Amino acid sequence: MAEAYIIDAVRTAGGRRGGALKDWHPVDLGAAVLNALVERTGIDPAAVDDVIAGCVSQIGEQSCHVGRNMVLASKLPDSVPAVTIDRQCGSSQQSVHFAAQAIMSGTQDLVIAAGVESMTRVPMGTPVFLPLQAGIGTGPWPKSVQDRYGVTEFTQFRGAEMMAKKYRLSRKKLDAFALESHRKAAAATQAGAFDNEIVQIGDHRSDEGIRYDASLEALAGLKTLVPDGVITAGNASQICDGASAVLIASEAAVKAHGLKPLARIDQLTVTAGDPVIMLDEPIRATRTALEKSGRRIADIDLYEVNEAFAPVPLAWLREVGGDPEKLNVHGGAIALGHPLGASGAKLMATLVHALRRHGGRLGLQTMCEGGGIANVTIIERLS
């Protein structure tokens, strides 16, 4: 099978809801990261075979094929095709997988995997709530699905509470993890660790969600999202605006365009399980990916596990036997934000550049996704 190489990976800095990116149309955010890849790598824009864009809330400004609209707003010629995909929070990680699979199959040579989400301009849940408010339809889950699983809706908030209970994770432990996320992100920002991955948007170049003055006392004072629960706004990911993109190339394209790969795609896995608890599938997916690759978790130098809610990476760490010192070394979505459809490629950008900074060779990325799905990507740093 042919190899797939990561040439470069970029992201915008995370914008808080109503913050620095609120006036940017999501299509223009997406176009900005596409342009950055072209400029940084020096590729001929017309040589790009496809753009695969992840986006969760495909309605309003993110409707009518946001991926194609990103191409039309960018410096890529209109001869470059695009497709928009939704695998919930893992949408742009799946973009990376589809792009790598196209390269590995030999059907394409240069593919951009991207993602975008403006959670300010297209609020989370809009595709579900807007039709219901207009009296259109009954929602995404018919009675057949509700009866099968014994619920009337599938919510990540219920899943997070279920995970905390299943893995015996206390509110104190969740808040301590959240505090560490902010501290890591603050230290990484101050040390310039994100400089090589962030694309400046206007004057915006720093992640807005980091709380430099975060404390356990402040986190402990936040109300839980449900009565008698343990999940709060402080130990859950932040609503965020952002975009991300990864350029993936074949060996032939590397030679033809004089490119220098940053990393090689080593393993691609996606699994699915219980859609009610929903959020613990990265555990099984990681075990599957490691088994397929013939590796152990001890072989992996750094891991990016999306901090949708603090129970997710904490349970993952315990169950797969990971090293806390290798987990989300520059902070995670609790501090940096979780721009849904952009988060997959965003984490890949952070992982690629963190491996270079820390001198690691192998990196693993995974994230929980709506419906009880999880993607895992293992990469090998080359330069």
Compact summary:
Keywords: Acyltransferase, Transferase. It comes from Sphingomonas anseongensis. This protein is α/β, with parallel strands linked by helices.
Characterise the protein shown here.
By secondary structure, the protein is of the alpha/beta class. 37% of the residues lie in helices and 19% in strands. It has 13 helices and eleven strands. Strands 1, 2, 3, 4, 5, 6, 7, 8, 9, 10 and 11 form an eleven-stranded mixed sheet that branches. Helix 10 (281-293) runs parallel beside helix 11. It is globular and about 60 Å long. Residues 5-251 form the Thiolase N-terminal domain. Keywords: Acyltransferase, Transferase. Pfam families: Thiolase_C, Thiolase_N. Residues 259-381 form the Thiolase C-terminal domain. This is Acetyl-CoA C-acetyltransferase.
Helix tally equals 13
User: How do the helices and strands follow one another from N- to C-terminus?
Assistant: EEHEHEHEHHHHEHEHEHEHHHEE
Backbone structural class: alpha/beta
Helix content: 25-40%
Shape: globular
Features:
transferase; Thiolase; eleven-stranded mixed β-sheet; alpha/beta; 37% helix; acyltransferase; Acetyl-CoA C-acetyltransferase; 383 residues
Write the layout of secondary structure elements.
Elements: E1 5-12, E2 15-16, H1 26-41, E3 50-54, H2 66-73, E4 82-85, H3 91-105, E5 110-118, H4 126-133, H5 143-149, H6 156-166, H7 171-190, E6 198-199, H8 216-220, E7 240-249, H9 251-257, E8 263-272, H10 281-293, E9 302-305, H11 311-320, H12 333-336, H13 343-358, E10 362-369, E11 373-381
Parallel strand pairs: 1-6, 3-4, 3-5, 9-10
Antiparallel strand pairs: 1-7, 1-8, 2-7, 5-7, 8-11, 10-11
Family: Belongs to the thiolase-like superfamily. Thiolase family.
Keywords: Acyltransferase, Transferase
Organism: Sphingomonas anseongensis
